[in-house]
Amino acid sequence: MTGRRLSTVAAAAGLSALLCAGAAAPAYAKSPSPTWESRALKLKDAHKKAQGEGVKVALIDSGVADHPALDGKVTTGPNLLQDGVHKGDAKFGVHGTAMASNILQAAPKAHILSIRVIDDDPSNDSDLRNATDNPMARAIQYAVDQDVDVISLSIGGDTMGDTFDEKDTAALAVASGANVPVVAASGNEADELNDTSYPAAYPSALAVAAFKKGGAHADFSNVHTYNAISAPGVGITSASNTGGWEKIQGTSPATALTSGVVACMLSAAPEHRLSPGQVRTILTRTAHHPPGGFNPVFGYGRIDAAAAVRAAAQPPREETKSRAHKGAAHLAKPDGIEPTQHPAWDVATLTVGLLASAAGGGMVAGAVLIARRARRTDGPATGASPGQPF
Q1: Could you say which of 33, 192, 304, 356 is the most buried, measured as most Cβ atoms within 10 Å of its Cβ?
Q2: Stated pTM of the model
Q3: Class of domain 15-317 (CATH, top level)
Q4: Distance between CA 188 and CA 207 in Å, rounded?
């Protein structure tokens, strides 16, 4: 994995340095209920129909620490890093514990399989960057072998030509072939370079953008045509690896919440065994659409969990028979693994700049031409998959 980076969190400030703007929010003992994100997703109505019963969600992240709210709901899978950090250590599961709680907020009766592939401490970057294997690909394969129903990836990296990985595509193909939806974070760099992020940019992944309270775009949430859907991602109530609760932000919690919604959809209609394509279709059809039905900011819109769960009971039929192509001839690469390209938004020198209005919460989008340059490797910069958590 040449040029790959597995950095996660600034050591001094922990998770909040990565997920939260400004000073870290203090941890607190009890999770408030209901949260704004649960209201925005309409989880109360969704839970009348399903709560993720019988569904196993693979959380491929930094591990999950012990927490009262997670007791009996998480199985600890393999640690694929071999970096000397183990469950119970202060640096274990900072990001992953938060993600587990976000999944369970949306699907309280689901079960989580935790697989550790990233480290919360960037001081381990040098060893991880030189890894010869691909922990994320191995984790996806392991998850499929364990018969999981959903895979949640709140991790990723930038693309300057070095983050597309054939092992990733092979692992994602295994998941797709096993009928397992893969949910991935869009990325947190809209207010910087707005880089393309893998695994979100792979066609088989369901890429999740983030919005803030009131429905406006979260300033950091990447703007790309691969975005499929958007979910709450600012001020999200999340479990701390120290046993308390804190507010975080990022496309990470948006992705975890979406994975929980998918778990509810699957448990609402277990007889149908929804495919990744059906999950995508239901989520995008039932979302609160932006003007025009789709845009690179929100994808097909903000998730409506209640509507998605209802629609899962009568899923759209998938057409499996091939149909003759009618139109001009088109030749593609025969290996089928060409990286996703989005000419209108992120090829060559085009980056989207987003300016949020502090007073009104509005947003102005402007296309800014910049010279593509080599990605920095210091600080909390996003590298490559598995990469830093969003």
Answers
A1: 304
A2: 0.79
A3: alpha beta
A4: 12
Is 217's pLDDT higher than 90?
A: yes
E-assigned strands of 30-149? 56-61, 74-79, 111-116
DSSP 182-247: EEEE--S-TTTT----BTTTSTTEEEEEEE-TTSPBPTTS---TTEEEEEE-SSEEEE-TTSSEEE
Q: Quote the CA–CA distance of 379 and 298 in Å, as a whole number.
A: 28
Pick the catalytic residue from 38, 186, 221, 252: 252
- 8 A C-beta contact, residue 264 and residue 47: yes
| Cα distance between residue 149 and residue 266, in whole Å | 8
Given the residues 47, 61, 197, 267, select the one marked as catalytic: 61
Query: In the predicted model, is pLDDT for residue 378 greater than 60?
Result: no
Q: What is the pLDDT of residues 15-43, one digit of tens each?
A: 333 333 333 455 555 566 789 999 999 99
Amino acid at 95: H
| Cis amide prior to 122 (ω within 30 degrees) | no
Select from 346, 148, 174 the least CA-distant residue to 263: 148
Q: Given 47, 67, 95, 224, which residue is catalytic?
A: 95
User: Please, which residues have CB within 8 angstroms of residue 118's CB and are 6 or more apart in sequence?
Assistant: 6, 8, 61, 62, 81, 95, 135, 155, 386, 387, 388, 389
C-alpha–C-alpha distance, residues 186 and 217, integer Å: 13
Q: What is the pLDDT of residue 326?
A: 74
Digit-coded pLDDT (tens) for 40-91 = 999 999 999 999 999 999 999 999 999 999 999 999 999 998 788 889 898 8
pLDDT digits (tens, 9 = 90+) for 149-194: 999 999 986 533 347 888 999 999 999 999 999 999 999 999 888 9
Task: Tell me how far apart the alpha carbons of residues 103 and 111 are, in angstroms, rounded to a whole number.
Answer: 9
Active site residue 252: yes
Q: At what angle do helices 135-145 and 166-177 cross, to 10 degrees?
A: 10
